[in-house]
Design a protein that fits this description.
- This protein is globular.
- It has 211 residues and is mainly beta.
- It is built from one helix and nine strands; from the N terminus they run ββββββββαβ.
- Strands 1-2-3-4-5-6-7-8-9 form a nine-stranded parallel sheet, covered by helices on one side.
- Strand 8, helix 1 and strand 9 form a beta-alpha-beta unit.
- The protein starts with a strand and ends in a 20-residue tail after the last strand.
- This is Plant intracellular Ras-group-related LRR protein 4-like.
- Pfam families: LRR_1 (PF00560), LRR_8 (PF13855).
- Keywords: Leucine-rich repeat, Repeat.
- It comes from Octopus sinensis.
Amino acid sequence: MMRILCASKNKLCFLPSNMHKLRNLEKLDLSQNSLTKFDESLTTFEYLEYLDLSENEIQSLPQTFGSLKLLTYLNLSKNNIESFPSEDIQILGSVKKLDISENRIGELPANLPYLYRMVELRASFNYLEGLPPAINLMKGLEILLVDENYIVTLSENICKTPNLKILDVSNNKIKQWPKAFENLKKKCNCITGHQTSNKRKSTSPKEPSNN
């Protein structure tokens, strides 16, 4: 009964037709391949906790994440994704670490804050112009990286995110800052302004512990 499958760096352009038979998978690594889509079969793995699809050529995501209710780690970085689905987003309610950096995403879903268990969100190097207004509902959020985007203003609610420890909004186009931003800087490591960036690469979040 296979629970872990690592198939990274295999030049995969598509998944095998019998992939759906691996119903008991808990960890799946498909990074550094040539996949062009998020195969629908992946949404049927109801026991999956870890999914790495980074460094592929994925252009779009499914409208719903199906049965991925136990997923705690999702890495979609370094693809060509243009949007993140908002339909039935509560399915991803167990996700603690989400990496969507280095894509072409222009907007985060307004209901993204319903993923209140999320601890780490990486969305650097995209085309974001703002953050979800109710981001303060993400009570567990500790790390928020949205550097290298096109954000113009930050909502006052960013300062009400209770457990935020690291906020990187550097290399954006922010002209209007929240009134309480100075107070946020006292309790949180806030990276702002222009930071030198030599290459479009981001560090993916570490694999979550079993705790």
